[in-house]
Amino acid sequence: MSKNYRGYFIDLDGTTYKGKEQIPAAARFIKRLKAAGKTILFVTNNSTRSPEFVANNLRENHNIDVKPENVYTTALATADYLDGIAGKRRKVYVVGESGLRDALAACGFEITDQQPDFVVVGLDSQVTYAKLETAVLLIRDGAKFIGTNADSNLPNERGMVPGAGSIVKLVEYATQQKPLMIGKPEKIIMEMALQRVGLSRTEVVMVGDNYHTDIKAAINVGMDSLLVYTGLSKPADVGCEAIQPTYSVRSLDEWKIYE
Q1: Which of 44, 50, 73, 95 gives a 20 to 30 Å CA spacing to 196?
Q2: What are the pLDDT digits (tens) for 39-78?
Q3: Are 194 and 206 in contact (CB under 8 A)?
Q4: Parallel, antiparallel, or unpaired: how do β-strands 71-73 and 39-44 relate?
Q5: Do the beta carbons of residue 85 and residue 92 sit within 8 Å?
Q6: pLDDT, position 2
């Protein structure tokens, strides 16, 4: 029996689409949420894309009509979090792509390799040894080490390629320092997302396909969760977990939305 939630946090890959493949039930689910006047926020560990890019992709390729304001990435969460704790310390060195750099710049951070206060490491498909070397030396010199997310891999057309977590781990190994992690399954991205929509954790449900990121993020922040079996996690594996999702469905068509 589902509850009447005011807000829905929704994962992207595996939940809303599968790579370039549509999940028609997801498009119907979003339409139903919009018709019922629910607050919708796509919460994603991808730090490389801007909210504009994500919203455009959903609209053009997946029949899901949402605005950039409906998208919350680890890049935005990282920038929001640092903005809240940095004070006058506004210098950041970034291993990452334009989505991350733009989000930090929009919050007034200067991106530099000259005595930064923070080193932020995310997914960077153009990463070089020189970039990693700089990050390691700056962290060893006292900059605070921030990781966007711990995803070891991410799916694309060629298979399971290295994710942001793989790059973060390399820097962690070379510095012997644990990073502060922002993305799912950590609480930080969820707390930042709740602040963004102005709702409490009891008013929102997290919808995702991956027990170890989406559902654990909800568990870690004390939020209800809805696991949909269209992506990574399988019922047999989830059945072995000590803490179960609040709800699980085979398809988002099964989920009842209250007006």
Answers
A1: 95
A2: 999 999 999 999 999 999 999 999 999 999 999 999 999 9
A3: no
A4: parallel
A5: no
A6: 74
Phi, psi of 120 (to 5 degrees): -105, 125
Give the separation between CA 5 and CA 101, rounded to whole angstroms: 34
Q: Note the pLDDT tens digit of each residue in 76-97.
A: 999 999 999 999 999 999 999 9
Q: CA-CA distance, 59 to 65, in Å (whole number)?
A: 5
187: which 2 tokens?
């609480």
* Number of Cβ within a 10 Å radius of residue 24: 12
Each as own residue / partner, the long-range contacts of residues 175-180 (CB below 8 Å, 24 or more positions apart, any chain) are 175/136, 175/139, 175/140, 175/145, 177/139, 177/140, 177/145, 178/145, 179/121, 179/145, 179/146, 179/147, 180/144, 180/145, 180/146, 180/147
- Active site residue: 11, 80, 151, 214, which one? 11
pLDDT of residue 1: 66
80 carries an active-site annotation: no
Q: Which pLDDT tens digit goes with each residue over 130-180? A: 999 999 999 999 999 999 999 998 877 788 889 999 999 999 999 999 999
Return the closest-CA partner of residue 48 out of 71, 67, 30: 71
DSSP secondary structure, 178-226, as one string: PPEE-STTSHHHHHHHHHHHT--GGGEEEEES-IIIIIHHHHHHT-EEE
Average pLDDT, the chain: 96
Distance between CA 49 and CA 98 in Å, rounded?
Answer: 7
Catalytic residue flag (residue 209): no
